[in-house]
Queue: 4 jobs
Job 1
Amino acid sequence: MDLEAIYENVERRDIGSTTGAQTLSHGRDESKNLKHRGSRCLVLISVGLGLICVLLLVFIILLYITITAERDLIKSYKNTVEELNQTINSLQDKHTDLTQKNLELETKVKNLTAEKDQLQRDFDSLNKKGLVNFFMSTELKNWSDSRQYCRDRGADLVIINTEEKQRFISSVVKERVWIGLSDTETEGVMKWVDNSTLKQGFWLKGEPNNDGNEDCIELNYNREKSGWSPLNSWNDLPCSEKKKGICEK
């Protein structure tokens, strides 16, 4: 073998060794690059998943807040509706009560109107007969002093000798009053202040009873008293009792 062939073989070996080393080094670099790129991808994936988790958590929180707010709003609406229903029911009850009271008032007005019309008719009838010259004393006095009160004013205690007059006076007086009737002169003989004898009386049930020397007569206004009526309202009392009197000119 000549020298040229030996040199050629040596050069080939050197080139092969160099090329192998370079190839090995390049493979190692590529492996490192792949690992590096893999790590970066893993980091990016992790970061992406983390962001997704954060966004999902934010979404869940916002959704919870929204649901809670809507639930509170619905609860508030329900409470408002219940309050409105209670108010409506209360107003309906009040309306029913007011309607009932209105009906009662209408009935009372009708009754009072009828009573007023009857009083007006009685007044007109009495006026034609000159029977409206009545007035009430202003002080509480015994029977004699009440009579004197009337006489000082050109009148006397009233004489009631007809049903019409009795009804009229019973309708206008609102308290117990003396009338011009007594049996002070003769026990059991009732006489009017004009000295005429009683012919028709309008007594309460069981009266006159002369219980305890009761010689003077009152017109009793107590409409709740048993047996009271416009034609049954007289009562005998001791003449010393003090009350107002009804005078007649």
Job 2
Amino acid sequence: MLEFITWDVAPEIFSTKYITVRWYGLLFALGFLIGQQILFYIFRKEGKPESDVETLTVYMVIATVVGARLGHVLFYEPMDYLRNPIDILKIWEGGLASHGATIGILFALYLYARKKKDQSYFWVVDRIVITVALAGMLIRLGNLMNSEIYGHQTYLPWGFIFVRDGQTIPRHPTQIYEALFCLVLFITLFAIWNKYRARTQEGLLLGIFLIALFTFRFLVEFLKEPQVEFENEMLLNMGQLLSIPAVIGGILVLVISSRNARKTGNVISNAKI
């Protein structure tokens, strides 16, 4: 008889009369805290002011929360929030979209880079995506702790039964699939930066990040249950439709990066990545 993993972990770490601390919130915050320490290391290695990391952190926190929330509102439930706009502020009730966070971060970093003569837009984003990949891993683990964003039924031995969400059959733990992929992506991006940063054309890491992450996101969505009701009638769900322009954008970034690198002579050549 097949045995599966019964997932019955409480989403709350602890709760009192006045406050509830959840795993998702803790892992979300850890993404910023650990990412900040990685940026401190990167900025020290490249001779940039560490005080800029603190400024970047503020940009990142605001952009991630606002972008992810508005992304969910606009892409997944626009009519519901149009009827009850005050609900947009109720972030604690859930509803954050990674595609919205990506747009928010890219825009915020554009505003940041405009004020820094020694840090071009592509230079900044190339370093940020390293930390974003790690944060993505932690956020997906938070989804696992919430017993949400899981996949279709499976009889593979690592199938999860999410009993807290009322499930009685094993499902693909797509949160773990995405978390592991983000971890591999983080290690890959950090390794490229660490070994080739002096010869890496600006925009290379951003292009790799966009293409790799959203190609995987497009594919893993085939295993997921619909997140909102209107996706039941769609050939490709909203996550997949939003991933396509992100992948195309990544390809365009690599093309621009390669052209700029050839002009300056700053390009990785004959290097095995």
Job 3
Amino acid sequence: MVASALAALVIVAALDTTWRGLFLAKLAQKQFDETTELRNAAQWVTRDLRRASAVAEAGPGRLEFTSADGGTVAYALDGGSLVRTEGASRRTVAKGLTAAAFSADEREGGVLVTAEFTGERGGNVRTAVWVPAASGGI
């Protein structure tokens, strides 16, 4: 009877440890997924802005600029997703965002565009890209 009681305690302790380990693994996966989505958002915006010829609009949840080929590219926060629109093409580039803040600071020689993205779990990523004045500004 004592052996059965000890075996039961060992089994309960083992199950508790297993459940805690699974919970921590799931939590780590969620944090990793959020970081990946935030980095995707920053990577897309950075890549496109490096090819921008003029910045038209930058504000909370919205960025619009002209690409080097003359087309208009826009980013907008739509229900927790960052959506990229170019012409008739619309693509979700990141999910799980609670905020996307864009700003454009016109300076001599060009425009400094910054973008900051915040995830549901509180993580954030910021990027900044210089758009030369020869390209045009706001």
Job 4
Amino acid sequence: MKDRLNKALQREEFFLHFQPQVDILTNRVNGMEALLRWRHPTDGLIPPGEFIPVAEETGLIIPIGEWVLRTACKQNKAWQLAGYAPVTMAVNVSPIQFHQHNFIEIVLDALRDSELDSAYLELEITEGVAMEHVDQVIYKLQALRDIGVQISIDDFGTGFSSLTYLKQFPIHTLKVAREFVRDIPGDPDGAAIVQAIIAMANSLRLKVIAEGVETEEQLSFLQHIGCAEIQGYIFSRPMPEGEIKKMLTPSPA
């Protein structure tokens, strides 16, 4: 797998799909999440759950992740140049990527090369990343925020983050993990956790996005408890650029 992954980058076998992040009241697409896909010439599509852990273990996630970042920024800028209203592009960042000594410079280079305004890039990190070397993480997050990049905590609720530290992190968004969304509103414990996360995010003046929303019942419950945005199959599955851009709003003349 390692050799095939290495060749995949060289042979340009990777590509991106995009999943919309949608305003729960207006159905307007406010953002997109860039999701890595791999089509092997003989094996076909390889699930991310199979190759991403290998990429992380071998360190190949560093060049692959940089490719994702650069490609996502260029695509977002291309949509703007094509006359669509600007949206935020969310890009997942692995722990090994985030802790690179030159990570800030890599982000700046991607923004400069694409000519994308930093306000339209959002980097997603997990709670696990946030809780490693907290002082360094806060410093790096603040540096990213200072250049205008949005920061979100992905899969919130699945880790063990301290609320004390959470208050100190210069972040913009909490993403409610799909593990909790999946069983609402029928599961009282899951519903209580989701409601608590959304209430906390609202009180901290953070944007909150519920991931993995698939049913009208889930959507209705989330709307009732004050969730502003959703991401999930109820609106759209991840799709290639040619299909997903149809969901973008034309920029006002």
